[in-house]
Structure formats: structure tokens, C-alpha cells
């Protein structure tokens, strides 16, 4: 059985320190329990047949790398370049003798990549001296880059680790590592290729070229959750932006409408709850994201969405380039011309993006951590399509 190392650690009841702790909100900051509507809050976006949806099986890690599994034929081609020792270890699940690997005593700053496909797997900042004779790390470069498989060979119950992208055998993971994870990833040095921090890395060892877009559509929990599931979206993060104050907290944003005029600066504007979306423009276009956004929320509601009232719940598109501004305005104009929202006026504001402030940790991945919580938003096209299959 193959799985992400974080899941594997859980399955084997090893310390789950690799998982980001799922915080719980305080009562005062918890969202209204009344958020139960799950209907088509928004109308149908226009011109579905004209959108250039590329149904792609590509998979990305949150650190921005393409981790789409390579075909067996592609791996075999790459493996032809390996020296016999690296081939034996990565392709035949071999083990190098202890205290023999060249990377064991490497103390330079940099990244350890898969010797077969180049994916960054471990970082010098997580390396430690385990005394075992093999290079050891207490966590991967990105938990999505290293897969785990139960290994019951040689009369032992161990967890084998492999490259997520090319399935190269790397070594094993044990539960006797140092803090903060308590894990020890025990590597064969021959499965890794080291690049110093100032050394140029080849394209296969670099993150994909990404774009960023910002969306405000009411409570950020659901908007973030649904964007995170879009094909080509690398990460979706909840936060605050477009307000007049620096470093806002959730409490500040909730109370901004009640702030007395005497305390407001001239031209004061409150923050909006915003989702920052980082995406691969080769897999999904900004227009496709706009389409999903207008299916998720109701852009005709002024300063509210469903049961949530307040300027922080306003509808907004905050653009990072002139091209995005043009695209956003054109999309809204099309929605209005087609009377998508039954003639009701679209109040979505379109402004150049100001500084984005990330929301508190407990707001990130909130619906993933709290699946029983309801959400007011409609299903975007990528989920509607998945359900229809
Ligand atoms: Zn690999």
C-alpha cells in the first residue's frame, strides 16, 4: 500500500508530528453555525463551451513542484543514466553499506534531490547525525514528495520510503528521530543528488512557474476549500487584504464595521476575507478560476454572503496585473450582459491587489479539519464535473 508519508505515519501509529496540527477555533471566533445552505448560491457562469478547460491529471505539491507520477517507461529511460550502485538501490530496493555513502558527512546548505527524476526530497536544514551510518533527516522537503509503503521483508516491520514522482526506493522511516517530528528518515546516499544553495538546479528540480490570484467571496473557509481542489491549483490560503490597517487579526476584521469614526483614519477601509490562489497557468487559466469563483458565491449580495454580514464578506477580485484586471472586468461584463444573476446587479469590486496578510493557522484548511461544518457556497465547475462522473 502506497501513501503520503504523513498518512503512513498515522496508519502505523508513529508520531503524527509531520501533520500540521489541526487547531480548533475559540467560541468567539467560530463562524455562525447556521451556515448550512449548500445550494446554488450563485448563478451559472457564462460561455461554458468557450472556456479552455484542460482536464489534466497533473499533481502539484504545495511547495509548487510537479509531482505527477512518471510512467514506467519514462522511469526506465531515466534509470539508464544511473551508475550501477544508484540503479541497484533505487530500482531494486537495495541498501548501501553503512558509513560508505558520500553524503553522510555533507554539512553544506542545500537540497537533496531524487537521483532518478530530480525531485527535491530533503533539505540540509532537516539533516541530523543519527550515528547509524546513513544520511538522516527528521522530515522531508515536502511531505507530498516522499511516499511511504509498508515493508515486511527480512522479518521486520518497517516503512519503506520512495520518491513520489518516480517511485525510486530511497530508504526507510523510523519513529526514533529527534524533535519536532520524532521521525528518522534513513536514506541511501546513492539515491540522492545534492545541490548547494547557490548551485543552479535543472528544470526537473525546480518548482513550476506559477501565477497568483486573489478572491473575496464571503467566508474564506469554503472558498479556500473548493479552490484547493481545482486542477492546476497549487495552494489556496485564507487571509485578509485591501484594508487600511497592517497585520490584521481575525478579531480586528470581525470588529472593523463597529470601529468608532474617531478611531478611523481618513479614507479608512476594512479588510476583506480573501483567498490567495497560486496556480499553474498551463493547467488552469485565470478565466477558469473566475468561472469557478462566480459559481461558488453570489456576487449580487452587498457586504454579505449567506448568513455572514459585514464588509469583510464583500465580493472582490484583487488583481496582480493589467491582464488580470482586463480579464476580470470582461468576465463580469459578460455575466451582466447574459443576465446570469437574473438581472440583479453584480457588486463585485475589482481593484489592484494590496498586501495580503495570511489568516491565523486555525483558519487554514478549516473545512478539511472540520468536515462536519456546513458551507454556504455553490459547487464550482471542477467539482460539479467530478460528481457527474
Ligand atoms: Zn524521483
Fraction of residues in helix: 10-25%
- The sequence of SSEs as H and E is EHHHEEEEEEEEEEHEHEHEEEHEEHH
Measured between the Cα atoms of the first and last residue, the distance is: 26 Å
| Principal-axis shape | elongated
Number of helices: 9
Strand line-up in the sheet with most strands: 1-6-7-8-9-5-4
Number of domains: 2
Low-confidence stretches: 10-56
- By secondary-structure content and strand pairing, the structural class works out as alpha+beta
Report on the architecture of this protein.
This protein has 389 residues and is of the alpha+beta class. It has 2 domains: 31-60 and 208-388, Peptide methionine sulphoxide reductase MsrA (Peptide Methionine Sulfoxide Reductase, Chain A); 72-205, Metal Binding Protein, Guanine Nucleotide Exchange Factor, Chain A. It is built from 9 helices and 18 strands. The chain has a 7-stranded antiparallel sheet with strand order 1-6-7-8-9-5-4. It is elongated. Zinc ion is lined by residues 114, 116-117, 119, 163, 165-166, 168.
Compose a concise summary of this entry.
With 389 residues, this protein is of the alpha+beta class. It has helices at 5-11, 72-79, 84-92, 220-228, 250-254, 286-296, 322-337, 366-369, 381-388; strands at residues 2-4, 110-114, 120-123, 127-128, 136-137, 146-151, 158-163, 169-174, 184-187, 192-196, 211-217, 233-241, 272-279, 304-305, 308-309, 315-319, 349-352, 357-358. Residues 114, 116-117, 119, 163, 165-166, 168 line the site of zinc ion.
Amino acid at each position: 500500500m502506497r501513501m503520503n508519508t504523513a498518512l503512513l505515519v498515522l496508519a502505523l501509529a508513529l508520531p503524527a508530528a509531520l501533520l500540521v496540527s489541526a487547531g480548533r477555533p475559540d467560541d468567539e471566533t467560530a463562524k455562525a453555525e447556521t451556515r448550512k445552505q449548500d445550494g446554488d448560491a450563485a448563478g451559472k457562469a457564462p460561455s461554458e463551451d468557450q472556456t479552455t478547460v484542460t482536464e489534466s491529471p497533473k499533481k502539484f505539491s504545495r511547495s509548487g513542484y510537479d509531482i505527477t507520477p512518471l510512467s514506467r517507461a519514462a522511469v526506465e529511460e531515466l534509470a539508464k543514466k544511473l551508475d550501477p550502485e544508484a540503479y541497484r538501490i533505487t530500482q531494486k530496493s537495495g541498501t548501501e553499506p553503512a558509513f560508505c555513502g558520500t553524503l553522510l558527512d555533507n554539512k553544506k546548505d542545500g537540497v537533496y534531490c531524487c537521483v532518478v527524476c530530480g525531485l527535491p526530497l530533503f533539505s540540509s536544514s532537516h539533516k541530523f547525525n543519527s550515528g547509524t551510518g546513513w544520511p538522516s533527516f527528521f522530515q522531508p522537503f515536502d511531505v507530498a514528495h516522499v511516499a511511504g509503503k509498508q515493508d515486511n521483508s527480512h522479518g521486520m516491520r518497517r516503512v519503506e520510503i520512495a520518491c513520489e514522482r518516480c517511485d525510486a526506493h530511497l530508504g526507510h522511516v523510523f519513529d526514533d528521530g529527534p524533535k519536532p517530528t520524532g521521525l528518522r528518515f534513513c536514506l541511501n546516499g546513492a539515491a540522492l543528488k545534492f545541490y548547494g544553495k547557490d548551485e543552479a538546479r535543472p528544470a526537473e528540480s525546480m518548482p513550476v512557474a506559477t501565477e497568483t490570484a486573489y478572491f473575496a467571496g464571503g467566508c474564506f473557509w469554503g472558498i479556500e476549500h473548493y479552490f484547493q481542489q481545482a486542477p492546476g491549483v497549487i495552494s489556496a490560503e485564507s487571509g485578509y487584504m485591501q484594508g487600511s490597517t497592517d497585520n490584521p487579526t481575525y478579531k480586528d476584521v470581525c470588529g472593523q464595521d463597529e470601529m468608532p469614526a474617531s478611531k478611523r483614519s481618513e479614507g479608512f477601509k476594512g479588510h476583506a476575507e480573501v483567498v490567495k490562489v497560486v496556480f499553474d497557468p498551463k493547467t488552469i487559466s485565470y478565466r477558469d478560476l473566475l468561472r469557478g469563483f462566480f459559481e461558488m458565491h453570489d456576487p449580487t449580495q452587498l457586504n454579505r454572503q449567506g448568513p455572514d454580514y459585514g464588509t469583510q464578506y464583500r465580493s472582490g477580485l484583487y488583481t496582480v496585473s493589467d491582464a488580470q484586471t482586463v480579464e476580470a472586468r470582461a468576465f463580469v461584463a459578460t455575466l451582466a450582459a447574459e443576465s446570469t444573476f437574473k438581472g440583479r446587479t453584480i457588486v463585485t469590486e475589482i481593484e489592484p491587489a494590496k498586501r495580503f496578510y495570511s489568516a491565523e493557522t486555525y483558519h487554514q484548511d478549516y473545512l478539511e479539519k472540520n468536515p462536519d461544518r456546513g458551507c454556504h457556497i455553490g459547487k464550482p465547475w471542477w467539482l460539479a464535473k467530478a460528481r457527474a462522473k
